[in-house]
């Protein structure tokens, strides 16, 4: 405790969405890969330098440890930076000193060039219903500058939420008090999430990324109990 | 073991030091051994408000650095028995306050006093954080305007998360609201937030309302805690506040506009 007080927090752990380039291997022959890769790199010298890469075997291609090591070494020689593999066992990945990404499946079909699948293809950041985790209950006022996130479930606040405070939930948000701060429901993309509050004075409300600022909220709805939900691409605010 | 009371606000210039001086003097007058500690290192003011600036030899930072002992730095108030001041250093900054040093000084003061009143600097950085960290009670000083109320709200959030009581999972810091510079006439005209609005936004117990008063500036200039100016409205408001803090029931007297002579004649 004393240490944390004298020096402050030394780190934070944060989940972030990032775009990574995936190198999908359509051939099990590293030699062939390198020949074609060199041709590509020659078209844009310097462009790929230091680029973090995820290696993923295409369909019908399986990577073993020796192949992976050869590939990684060859890629590093060319200035690329393999950081992880997808769809490869941990044992194989650890030999090459790479991490394993497990949830790359959604983008797989997209990258494998099967355009025929068209609309049925899943987008990379797939909106999903929250997995009905336990609701998080907050009984103390949520003050300006505080942030509460209910991961995987609903958020229930039985106290006021101040201006400058932020509520986030993968599921619904209930505020049994005045909501003056921000409330973001369905932050993982659940379009069925809703916000309920006893008195709507919010700075911002959002469901699954569709937001509305206080000045866009009908004055007649302010200061009264309300429910906020998503209808298509539009937020709908109803008095309760 | 003393109770440690922090006087804090977030925003500057709302009356923390005036409140610290008055509150400390009021507790001492009620017979409690009280020390007021100035945490505003670099912007030392408490000694001026308490009228002892010429008697400062050693200060809080000297004690933390072991350059003086606590008894050398404490200044005994000449007017009120049992009231002492630990002044801040004017030549240093807030980084001179170390966590261990503050903890050691406060626990030594807690041994020999009934109340330790910590006059917090403005802001939410190191000085303010250390002033509130060890607190048992908090007086949150707020003016009836939106920026002050929002800053107080932020500070209330810190009191419930960044204090020793919060970190150790003890009973939370007891929070009291002190509204200063309250002008009932301007509230009536809608120029200031009303007491109901402030209490509703902050949702904590109201300990006292101190009216906007020329007595406060006059007392500061004279170096007298305003609570000792017993004929003034602000002095009486602080007297009520201390009595309420000590458990007495007293009505809030300064919520409504005082009517002038004409107002009284015509019953406005």
TrEMBL record, chain A:
Annotated Septum formation inhibitor MinC C-terminal domain residues: 138-237
Annotated region (Disordered), positions in chain: 106-132
InterPro entries according to UniProt: CAP/MinC_C (IPR016098), MinC (IPR013033), MinC_C_sf (IPR036145), MinC_N (IPR007874), Septum_form_inhib_MinC_C (IPR005526)
Domain Septum formation inhibitor MinC N-terminal as annotated: residue spans: 11-82
Pfam annotation, one family: MinC_C
Biased composition (Basic and acidic residues): 118-132
Keyword entries, A-Z: Cell cycle, Cell division, Septation
Domain of life: Bacteria
Assembly description: Interacts with MinD and FtsZ.
Function: Cell division inhibitor that blocks the formation of polar Z ring septums. Rapidly oscillates between the poles of the cell to destabilize FtsZ filaments that have formed before they mature into polar Z rings. Prevents FtsZ polymerization.
Family: Belongs to the MinC family.
Protein name: Probable septum site-determining protein MinC
Originating species: Spiribacter onubensis
GN (gene name): minC
From TrEMBL, chain B:
InterPro entries given in the database record: CobQ/CobB/MinD/ParA_Nub-bd_dom (IPR002586), MinD (IPR010223), MinD_FleN (IPR025501), P-loop_NTPase (IPR027417), ParA/MinD_ATPase (IPR050625)
Its biological purpose: ATPase required for the correct placement of the division site. Cell division inhibitors MinC and MinD act in concert to form an inhibitor capable of blocking formation of the polar Z ring septums. Rapidly oscillates between the poles of the cell to destabilize FtsZ filaments that have formed before they mature into polar Z rings.
Keywords linked to the UniProt accession: ATP-binding, Cell cycle, Cell division, Nucleotide-binding, Septation
Family: Belongs to the ParA family. MinD subfamily.
Protein's name according to its UniProt entry: Septum site-determining protein MinD
Pfam families in alphabetical order: CbiA
Domain of life assignment: Bacteria
Oligomer status and interactors: Interacts with MinC and FtsZ.
Residue stretches making up the CobQ/CobB/MinD/ParA nucleotide binding domain: 5-226
